[in-house]
Amino acid sequence: MEKYQCHDCGKVLARDEEYMPYKVGNEVYVKCKDCHQSDPVLRNFQATEVYSRVVGYIRPVKQWNKGKRTEFDDRREFVVEQPACSSC
Ligand SMILES: [Zn+2]
Cα(17) to centroid of ligand 1, in Å? Predict the structure, then answer.
């Protein structure tokens, strides 16, 4: 058996220790018994794919070139206040 490490607490599991395996595609994640009992759901096991608009196209930011990714980091979100209706 290869060495398993708990996904949540990072503990390296002992050879005879109970654990819960989670198969995601070709990847297998494991949780130790304590972590599985406190939260049986596997969370935060993969990065979120962020899409944004670049030169007219919506593309995953991960696939942008270095310069455009830096530009993405510089972008700020803001909310434009709606002007009050003039007839109300
Ligand atoms: Zn654990």
Answer: 11
Q: Rounded to an integer, what distance in angstroms lies between the CA atom of residue 62 and that of residue 56?
A: 17
Rounded CA separation 56/31 (Å): 43
58-79 pLDDT, tens digit each: 999 999 999 999 999 999 999 9
31 CA distance to ligand 1 middle (Å): 5
> Ligand 1: distance of its center to the CA of 50 in Å?
29
Longest dimension (CA), the chain: 75
Residues with pLDDT less than 70, the chain: 1, 88
Residue 74 backbone phi and psi in degrees, to 5: -80, -15
Question: Which among 26, 35, 27 is positioned nearest to 7, based on CA atoms?
Answer: 35
